[in-house]
Amino acid sequence: MSLRRKYNQHIIVDKEGLSSEKISLTLDNQPMTDVLKVLSFSKKFNYSQLNDSTIVVR
């Protein structure tokens, strides 16, 4: 399941090469912000909440 579907968010990936990577992890009911913190640390990207339903990854 993708993060887009699980959290009903539109995610814009604006970092070269990142959108083609596949990452597998187990999610229970962690908030999206916690998931993004872990992923951003491991994959070295920044992110920001553009509006209520859109996240931008850089």
Topology of this structure?
Elements: H1 3-7, E1 10-13, H2 32-43, E2 47-51, E3 54-57
Parallel strand pairs: 1-3
Antiparallel strand pairs: 2-3
Structure description:
The protein has 58 residues and is α+β, with helices and mostly antiparallel strands. It has one domain (3-57): Phage tail protein beta-alpha-beta fold. Helix content is 29%, strand content 22%. The protein is built from two helices and three strands, in the order αβαββ. A three-stranded mixed β-sheet has the order 1-3-2, with no helix packed on it. The longest helix has 12 residues, at 32-43. 5% of the residues are buried. The model has no long low-confidence stretch (mean pLDDT 90).
CATH topology: Phage tail protein beta-alpha-beta fold
CATH class: Alpha Beta
The SS-based structural class is alpha+beta
Strand order of the largest sheet: 1-3-2
User: What composes the largest sheet?
Assistant: 3 strands, mixed
- Give the CA-based shape: globular
Helix content: 25-40%
One letter per element, helices H and strands E, the order comes to HEHEE
Low-confidence residue ranges: none
The total beta strand count reads 3
Q: What oligomerization state is this entry in?
A: single chain
